[in-house]
Design brief:
heterodimer; A: about 110 residues; mainly beta; 4-stranded antiparallel sheet; globular; B: about 110 residues; about 55% strand
């Protein structure tokens, strides 16, 4: 049982480049989330999904897009990367909205230069 | 709105010392409260939780009590070990735009020296 997996672990992007951060979970969870963690700050919610085909914006969605074509996968797309998107990105999942425990992936460290 | 404030880090202690990491919150109603831990190179893991006032969450020797009157959820451990070195996040689960969301504090980095 792998839990929540994320790839890549680390990436350097040039300003204006695009990339997709991958996230997958094998727990059959309906809810999935993307957070970013800036140095010295708490996690901020970027986007979340309550099930396949359904996504919604979180607190800081600008510059990002998501899709949820399957229950397992929840990729995060960065278009036109900017230095302000330098951060650590965490994907998480939970069983349903009543579940109080979120399970986190190991994170992707992104550096935009 | 909902928010969580943690004590500033980093915190450095010697092995077997007593640990307190302060956490206070602002929220409407009575949210559930959590402590998550992030070990080096890993994602966040739930350490303990409390769902109503005066509840005490505990796990791995850590404890935290939900204090409604002081809106606090301080994390404590009587005798820390080197293996407790990690970043600790206080969080609350509250309504945001009609759905339940986790709101995190900024995290407190803890280093335990042998």
């Amino acid at each position: 049982n792998a839990g929540v997996t994320q790839t890549p672990k680390f990436r350097i992007l040039k300003i204006g480049q695009s990339m997709t951060l991958q996230c997958a979970q094998d727990m059959n969870h309906n809810y999935m989330y993307w957070y970013r963690q800036d140095p010295g700050m708490g996690l901020k919610l970027i986007y979340y999904s309550v099930g396949a085909g359904i996504t919604d914006k979180g607190e800081v969605p600008n510059g990002y897009n998501v899709s949820r074509s399957t229950t397992e996968d929840f990729p995060l797309r960065l278009e036109l990367a900017a230095p302000s998107q330098t951060s650590v990105y965490f994907c998480a999942s939970s069983r349903d909205k009543g579940s109080e425990t979120q399970y986190f992936g190991p994170g992707t460290r992104l550096l935009v230069l | 709105g909902n928010s969580v404030t943690q004590m500033e880090g980093p915190v450095t202690l010697s092995e077997e010392a007593f640990l307190t990491i302060n956490c206070t919150y602002t929220a409407t109603g009575y949210p559930s409260l959590f402590w998550y831990v992030q070990y080096p190179g890993e994602g966040l893991q739930l350490l303990l939780k409390a769902t109503k006032a005066d509840d005490k969450g505990s796990n791995k020797g850590f404890e935290a009590t939900y204090r409604k009157e002081t809106t606090s959820f301080h994390l404590e451990k009587g005798s820390v070990q080197v293996s407790d070195s990690a970043v600790y996040f206080c969080a609350l689960r509250g309504l945001w735009q009609g759905a339940q969301k986790l709101v995190f504090g900024q995290g407190t980095r803890l280093t335990i020296n042998p």
